[in-house]
């Protein structure tokens, strides 16, 4: 059996209410999770939404 390696390059923003898909290279990384914006990374304590078109977080 041949072992296959897969590299993840994109994933859903770790914010539970966010719909965005982020590039792992461009994401904001906080606590080993990947976020699309500073608002999502801070848990929307001071920044409302992520400012991406079509996302309602």
List the helices and strands and how they pair.
Layout: E1 10-12, E2 21-23, E3 28-30, E4 33-35, H1 38-41
Antiparallel strand pairs: 1-2, 3-4
Number of helical runs?
1
Structural class: mainly beta
What is the arithmetic mean of pLDDT? 94
Strand order of the largest sheet: 1-2
Portion of residues in helices?
Answer: under 10%
Low-confidence runs of at least 5 consecutive residues:
none
Q: Tell me about the largest β-sheet.
A: 2 strands, antiparallel
Estimate the strand proportion: 15-25%
Distance between the termini: 44 Å
Would you report the number of β strands? Answer: 4
Rg to the nearest angstrom? 13 Å
What's the assembly state of these chains? single chain
Order of helices and strands: EEEEH
- Name the overall outline: elongated
How does this model look, in words?
A two-stranded antiparallel ribbon has the order 1-2. A two-stranded antiparallel ribbon has the order 3-4. The termini are far apart. The model has no long low-confidence stretch (mean pLDDT 94). By secondary structure, it is mainly β. A hairpin with an 8-residue loop joins β1 and β2. The longest helix is centred in the last third of the chain and has 4 residues. 7% of the residues lie in helices and 21% in strands. It is built from 1 helix and 4 strands; from the N terminus they run ββββα. The radius of gyration is 13 Å and the shape is elongated. It has a domain of 32 residues.
């Amino acid at each position: 059996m041949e072992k296959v390696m897969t590299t993840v390059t994109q994933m859903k923003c770790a914010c539970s209410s966010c719909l965005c898909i982020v590039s792992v290279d461009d994401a904001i990384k906080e606590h080993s999770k990947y976020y699309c914006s500073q608002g999502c990374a801070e848990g929307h304590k001071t920044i409302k939404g992520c400012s991406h078109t079509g996302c309602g977080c």
